[in-house]
């Protein structure tokens, strides 16, 4: 899709359902889709800290996990990333020579329009403000329920879901249905992916396991050399064209790594 088409389409949005999420086409999945070792890619991740790799998922180890320190660091890194994206957004949405010369500047115009509209119409949900995030929104749980009713999801054994707030209910439904949950470590700072299964949890911890802290606390971190069959991939977006499925993220570009 070209920029003019997106810019022409998005002003026509009239309701939350039409511009925030549209489950208009079934997910497709490849039974031969595996996460596999990629030596060329792995060289870019040599600085990752895999200190959680050796931790077992026992109750005693879970108690040793420093939740407050993890959350403080997560919030610090999130704030730093949003500040950086805010500066890029400001540059790209202003009428400057730099913005006009950048072929991707139109994406930031759409992102800002959606974020502003969500806040103005109060359809944004916490964490707020939603600017420079995959925005949480009123109706996210209902959207998750619709997704869980799709045949692809029902038949899936392993579902990859990103760690964003709007997908928390998707992560919960994945675990509640006895499926494997594969989720990226937030900002890839403690590893690449983590796996969670309902057998690793108790009824009292399954809800917590759907949060960023819970993933680090209860999940099993994995590296690039572990083979996993993934049936369905769920990612969040800032804007989606319901006709073509073309999407825009928040502009931080982690999804290329998540979908390698």
TrEMBL record:
Its GO CC terms are:
cytoplasm
Superkingdom of origin: Eukaryota
InterPro entries in the cross-refs: FTHF_cligase (IPR002698), NagB/RpiA_transferase-like (IPR037171)
The name on file for this protein is 5-formyltetrahydrofolate cyclo-ligase
Q: Could you read off the lineage of the organism from its UniProt record?
A: Eukaryota, Viridiplantae, Streptophyta, Embryophyta, Tracheophyta
